[in-house]
Amino acid sequence: MGFFQGDETFIMHFFEWLPVAIFYYILPVLIVIKWLQFIRLSSIAKNYSIPLLSSQTVFQETVSFIVPARNEEFTIEKCLRSIMQSGYPVNQIIVVDDQSIDKTSEIVKSLQKEDVRIELVTVENLPGGWTGKNYAQFIGALKSKSEWLIFIDSDVVISLNAVNTILVFTHEKGIDFLSISPFQICEKYYEKLLQPEIFNLLNYLYPFNKINTAHSKSIAANGSFMIIKRRHYFDSGGHESVKQSILEDVAFAKKVHEKGYRVSLVHGEPIVASRMYRSFLQLWRGWSKNLYLIIKESKKNFLNILLQYVFMYLYPLIYYIIFRKLYISLLYYVIFAVLQCIMRIKNKHYFHYHIFYPFYGFIIIVLMINSYIQLSIFKRAQWKQRIYYSVKN
User: Fold this and answer.
1) Which domains does the chain possess?
2) Predicted local distance difference test score (pLDDT) of residue 52
């Protein structure tokens, strides 16, 4: 009988100390491993970029740029001028004004006087069942007359010789549909805090090495910059096939892949750059409308990702709340801050902000939860003075 009592005592002590052992020893090791994985994937992403060619050899294929624009008075001129000065004989620069109420159309009209290739198309009414951007891109594609279509957001700028470089790359690699994730230009402090971390999450959800593997089932795209042959675009159904989708870039990439075309995603530095959001409210609404869908489409469990971020960014605080050991909590904070610094240095993204990682990590966690509530529970998304209900992807 005494033997069994001792056995029971051991089991009781084991289960009492198991949670402590997990928090003391196992979780910190797992978190470090996860940070190292993020660092590794960030390094891999840099390997999937297109080196800018200095060659002046120009391909003979015709190219049409399609620029959907809704209230883009602060960005449209820089975008169009970068296309005008790209060094490639672009056939058309089609700007589709999606019912802007600012000076977007006036700016485009003034640039038309400088470059006859610029065409302004105005959307008078948005048909039911469409999102604004999808409809604008589809209308622009219908107006195009070139072999290649390049869809570019109005907050994106391209470097000199970028178009020729991209065409050379697609030909050499045999790529039918290429999207480019722009290098992120961050000016305000909240951009420098949040944008690098969100793109690190995207690198984790959609690793570049898996996306660009032949016959890969992991399909992703970045709608900021996409290039595809016109016939492949319409053969895949165009944006009409994903007209209700909020995450239209990934949805359309899957349509293209289903048709047997090769899909690729690369990093934009040094040829494509973007400043996505000009205010914190824009940033909040922009990521709220698609962050949950981005996680969902990656086939990773949303709750799993959320918990990973809670422990990766908030573990030192959680540890202190539970065990009240300040020095050990600070030690974990320093270790994770160093790892965060390494990742930011590798990404060339404002490494001195790494000391604030629990703060911006907390904001991203709240952003994930808000995106889930908006898209999964209320099934609606708000963007650019429009609310889309019954959100699909």
Assistant:
1) 25-393 (3.90.550.10)
2) 83
